[in-house]
């Protein structure tokens, strides 16, 4: 069997106490603590967060942070559209003022005190009616703002309330899908560069001028799920690194150069627990979610994020609305220990 010295070219040092000036990749044995230690990337992991007060699924909005999150709209367990809004403080979710209307399949972005909701499906007891409505949230109340330039159900959004973006989604009538993109200034929308494909059920994260989007369904393709991601620079979309796993309707949070994707659906397994990180060039598989789910929502950064709600898990029904949330934490570079006593 190859030893560490043979493989790496040097011995593991035995020391009485940890060195003060370690370098990335350094390894040593602390004989006092009886631990092998190394300095390196520890990798991220999801852990349980507080449960939503109302289970929900199918929002395509990237909003808030791990300690100041917000979620709104979606489907209930019975398939009804929702108006309920909840805020997260890092421990628990609290119900706050509802949206003025029930809606699902929305886009949106911003923060807990300055969010926007864009598009969606209005379900007043009739077949899906895709809408162009936009609402702003100020931390207390929702108010109507300027409409999207196109109707969009199951599109996606991200960015801030004064510099937001929305792309894709289903149109009226029928289930045709658009490649349109629009940019938001807090009051009105203007046309942006078209996405390379008609797409829906996708995830987006980042800013209006540095967006990452993917995990989409592209009708007309066989299969219509793919591994493709694209980046937006405020004017046009270009191909990004490919996902390792085909998924749709998952969550994405972070930035264009430091993002996390989680969950989603894929045929034949409809509720995935897969997680990947993106560094601006390529995707890497990470530790998985505890509960596989699709139509999941999230927010935060690549080092401290959160996902909540969703549909799943497999075996619980095709659209089992979830109330759980899971928090993502990545300590990045640090010291890892392994007891050998």
Structural description of this entry:
The protein is mainly beta and 341 residues long. It has one helix at residues 4-8, and strands at 13-15, 27-30, 35-41, 45-48, 60-61, 69-72, 85-88, 93-96, 107-110, 115-118, 121-122, 129-130, 134-137, 142-144, 156-159, 164-167, 181-184, 189-191, 203-207, 210-214, 229-232, 237-239, 251-255, 258-262, 275-278, 283-285, 297-300, 304-308, 325-329, 333-339. A hairpin with a 4-residue loop joins β25 (275-278) and β26. The protein starts with a helix and ends with a strand. The mean pLDDT is 88.
The largest beta-sheet arranges its strands as 5-9-10-13-14
Sketch the major β-sheet: 5 strands, mixed
Please state the average pLDDT score: 88
Q: Quick one: how many beta strands?
A: 30
Indicate the proportion of strand residues: 35-45%
Helix share, percent: under 10%
Distance between the termini: 22 Å
Secondary structure tally, helices? 1
Estimate the global geometry from the Cα principal axes: globular
Q: List low-confidence stretches.
A: none
C-alpha-based Rg, rounded: 21 Å
The structural class is: mainly beta
Give structural attributes:
1% helix, 341 residues, mainly beta, globular, 1 helix, 35% strand
Task: Briefly summarize what is shown.
The chain has about 350 residues and is mainly β.
